[in-house]
Design goal:
The structure holds two protein chains of two kinds. By secondary structure, chain A is mainly alpha-helical. Chain A contains 20 helices and five strands. Chain A folds into three domains: about 130 residues, no CATH class; about 90 residues; about 140 residues, no CATH class. Helices cover about 60% and strands about 5% of the residues of chain A. The N terminus and C terminus of chain A are likely disordered. By secondary structure, chain B is mostly helical. The chains are: A mainly alpha, B mainly alpha. The interface between A and B is large, with 52 and 53 residues.
Chain lengths: ~400, ~450
């Protein structure tokens, strides 16, 4: 088994070397590397990795990413109760813990697909979960999510069609709106895309195809105007609710974990704020679909990158919300939930946002690792070797006891 | 508003609001709450309120109910140690009627002042102390007054009055126990309990039973308190400790008796019954582990195990049906809906295996005869038969995606059940063999 403890920097240090950074073989570099130990502060989404929905409890919220040699590796925060970040090769997971068959199969699929983005991993998981290998409840959940995405896709397509026809100067009467749910109705609306086609300077058939493609991409988010939001939009709302709820808990509880509650609330607010702006950006892009379709090749990429960014920003939050819901429903103690949330809370990497928000991310990461404990450096949270070596009151007291 | 849209539609619209907008609406209703009866609307808001947990304004009624809020439930069955949540409003109304207008006005002014400073806990307790004392006197008059209430109501009123008489201690203990599902008191909780018990006035020593009742309600393992009291010979006199242990043991036996009766009367195999049985067995296990099991608790354990053994199927098909998503199939491509072919049968089987294992393990830990062991063996045989049959048929699966997907879902569903019964290693071997036969 090859595993490296508390070295979030294993990848970044190697990357630094690759970029011409200091060689870790010199004492100064070694000292610097040691000083950075357990400074879990990924600066990009790719470096942070994507949460992989394992069912094995010990692996909950572990993240998968590519190492410097483009091989998959897994990042385990607080593995087996330790404080650091445990980084190991993805293929060695079955060696460090007993995996359920669901997790073992998921490992194989993710490894085969080399999936590292939230969208790709979700896709792998949904496909696997529907087979029932993780249990029928999980299969039901996956099918429900897929069905919801399919429904959002259909509704999005209809709304985009109507909007495009209207913007192209077409008139849609109430009868047509009533029949739009049927394929005949949709076909009739498709024939009315001439105005939009001439405005975008492409054919009506191309407009129809672009709308279909756009709707397929928007299945997880949906349009703002839809009565039933897509999964990510819903998750964003739930994050804001969670932020309110855990903040109030932190303010009113007598528990000594209240500070984790407030930290979780700040992290949720920070991520939700950035995700909210990213969602608003997509809404703005879709405000004039004809303009977007006129330059579809670039427009498609812009839309895709916005959606991927939203998926990255919300990655890992569904598990946080699930354990919080469990605590609220009295399936576990809120203290236990708060401790677990504090361990796995997703923080937006600093380089993925503007300077102001990036500074906030840095502060949150500092807060994440600066829970002061005995013999730990109060700034870095590392074990302070000088302090450990110093004959302290504990040693003296023990000595006296022995006498 | 309620007259024109259905409750579900209204709830849906409320859930569609942005969190900030929803909070604004809630604050508005909260302000109205003092002047108009907005309970129906509040009950619709409640589902989202539970999720958002906004800071709630301190009202006379809320502060009054704090000492006995640990005993509030939505629906009271036979247990006289519980109070209906909806009786808070009439109790508050009754207390208000009994207090002088000047006193009420003074309380309201101080409440308004405290609402400006929500962090002022000491101020809340100071005001609470006065309100609880006045309310206890008022309710005692009602209880002992000439108009004789039914015995059950008198008993519940007695519980409310008792809690109010030691209101500060009840609120301190309630806040000292972390929220959610808590097994036992931690070190600071234990210290707090001892401090509160020592602080009870001499004429209120008997009221310690309300503190014990609160612990029985809030802790998953109230028997741990017995162990703690038995060991603590420095802070409390021996006689008091013995007395408290007797009280808490009585509370535990009462609550187990009531829960066991509910279990037998409940719908066999229904999810709630299974969940209740599981918690009850957990509680019995913890009592046994704490070394304070009595003949009554052993009898309750055997009674529960026997009644579980008599239930034909530890799964409710109706519950499963209710969960099922009706229109799932129509939008999904065949590869993703292949699991539906077996879903109904597998869900039932899986659910039963899960219940038999979870309940059976708990019965085993109690060291009594386990009537579910035979059922577990029967289920294992059933799965083994299905496995052999499936493996025999797998090589003949046509090489078309639809048939392959259905066969794989059939295989993986069984793999999951083998995993539940025999562990991941046996399941992994079966999956590999199945995949090989399928040509994957």
């Amino acid at each position: 088994m090859r595993a490296e403890v508390a070295t979030e920097q294993t990848a970044s240090a190697a990357a630094n070397r690759g970029r011409g950074g200091a060689d870790a073989s010199t004492p100064a570099a070694r000292k610097a590397a040691h000083a950075r130990r357990s400074h879990y502060e990924p600066s990009t989404f790719l470096e942070r990795g994507t949460v992989i929905p394992f069912t094995t409890t010990a692996l909950a919220q572990c993240r998968v990413r590519l190492d410097e040699r483009e091989r998959l590796e897994v990042v385990l925060p607080g593995f087996s109760g330790s404080k650091g970040i445990y980084v190991t090769a993805f293929s060695s997971l079955p060696e460090i813990t007993t995996l359920s068959v669901h997790d073992r199969t998921l490992t194989e699929i993710v490894g085969k697909e080399k999936a590292v983005t939230p969208t790709a991993i979700r896709h792998c998981w949904l496909e696997l979960a529907t087979t029932g290998i993780g249990g029928q409840a999980l299969a039901e959940q996956a099918r429900e999510e897929l069905t919801q995405a399919a429904e959002v896709q259909v509704a999005t397509r209809i709304m985009l069609l109507l909007d495009t026809v209207r913007r192209g100067g077409g008139e849609i009467g109430p009868e047509l709106i009533a029949s739009i749910g049927s394929s005949e109705g949709r076909n009739t609306v498709s024939t009315m895309l001439g105005g939009a086609a001439s405005r975008a300077n492409i054919t009506a058939i191309a407009i129809d195809q672009h709308i279909e493609e756009m709707a397929a991409m928007l299945g997880t988010l949906g349009l703002r105007s839809l009565p039933e939001p897509g999964r990510l939009r819903h998750l964003h709302t739930r994050m804001q609710e969670f932020s309110h709820a855990i903040d109030n808990w932190g303010r009113t509880t007598v528990s000594d974990l209240a500070h984790i509650g407030r930290f979780a609330a700040m992290s949720a607010e920070h991520s939700a704020g950035i995700a909210g702006r990213a969602i608003a950006e997509v809404d703005r892009t879709l405000a004039d679909p004809i303009r977007l379709m006129a330059r579809w090749d670039s427009g498609r990429e812009v839309l895709r990158s916005h959606l991927l960014r939203i998926a990255w920003l919300l990655d890992g939050w569904d598990y946080v919300l699930r354990i919080w819901d469990d605590a609220i429903a009295e399936r576990m103690a809120i203290d236990v939930a708060a401790r677990e949330i504090g361990r796995i809370i997703p923080i937006v990497p600093a380089r993925e946002v503007d300077a102001g928000a990036g500074q906030r991310s840095v502060e949150l990461f500092r807060e994440y690792r600066s829970r002061v404990r005995v013999y730990e450096d109060w700034l870095s949270g590392d074990l302070d070797e000088d302090l450990l070596a110093r004959p302290g009151p504990l040693t003296t007291a023990r000595g006296r006891d022995h006498k | 508003m309620i007259g024109t849209v259905s409750r579900e539609e209204l709830e849906q619209r409320l859930f569609a609001l942005q969190p900030d907008q929803f909070l604004e609406l809630y604050r508005l209703y909260e302000k109205l709450g003092n002047k108009a009866d907005v309970q129906p609307e509040m009950s619709i808001l409640r589902r989202r309120l539970v999720r958002m947990r906004p800071m709630r304004a301190l009202t006379f009624s809320r502060l009054l109910c704090q000492p006995f809020e640990g005993f509030l439930v939505d629906d009271v069955t036979g247990d006289a140690g519980l109070i209906m949540r909806r009786s808070c409003t009439p109790v508050a109304r009754l207390v208000r009627r009994k207090l002088s207008p000047e006193m009420l006005q003074r309380f309201e002014q101080r409440l308004a002042h405290l609402n400006q400073r929500p962090e002022d806990r000491a101020g809340q307790i100071l005001l609470g102390r006065e309100i609880w004392k006045a309310a206890a006197v008022a309710l005692k008059e009602v209880r002992c007054g000439p108009a004789r209430a039914p015995e059950d109501l008198r008993r519940r009123l007695g519980l409310i009055t008792g809690c109010l008489e030691i209101g500060e201690a009840m609120v301190s203990l309630s806040r000292g126990i972390p929220e959610g599902r808590v097994d036992a008191l931690d070190h600071s909780g234990q210290k707090l309990l001892v401090k509160l018990l020592r602080g009870l006035a001499h004429d209120r020593a008997g009221h310690a039973r309300y503190l014990m009742a609160l612990l029985t309600r809030r802790l998953e393992n109230p028997a741990s308190v017995i162990g703690m009291l038995a060991k603590d010979d420095r802070n409390l006199p021996g006689a008091t400790r013995q007395n408290l242990i007797r009280v808490i043991r009585g509370e535990i036996e009462n609550s187990i008796g009531a829960s066991a009766a509910e279990l037998v009367d409940g719908k066999p195999g229904a999810r709630e019954s299974v969940h209740r049985a599981e918690r009850l067995l957990d509680r019995l296990g913890q009592i046994k582990e704490s070394g304070v099991a009595s003949p009554a608790t052993d009898k309750a354990a055997r009674h529960i195990a026997d009644s579980l053994g008599r239930i034909g199927k530890l799964v409710s098909v109706e519950d499963l049906e209710r969960d099922r998503q009706a229109q799932i199939q129509q939008h999904l491509p065949v590869e993703l809906s292949a699991g539906l072919e077996h879903a109904e049968t597998y869900r039932e089987l899986e659910s039963e295996i899960d219940n038999v294992i979870r309940l059976g393990n708990r019965i085993d830990q109690l060291g009594i005869d386990n009537p579910l062991r035979q059922r577990r063996d029967r289920l294992r045989r059933d799965i083994e038969e299905r496995r052999s049959e499936l493996m025999r048929r797998l090589p003949d699966t046509p090489a078309v995606p639809e048939a392959q997907a259905i066969a794989r879902a059939g295989l993986y569903g069984l793999v999951r059940m083998v995993e539940m019964l025999d562990g991941p290693k046996a399941a992994e071997i079966m999956r590999r063999e199945g995949d090989r036969l399928l040509g994957g």
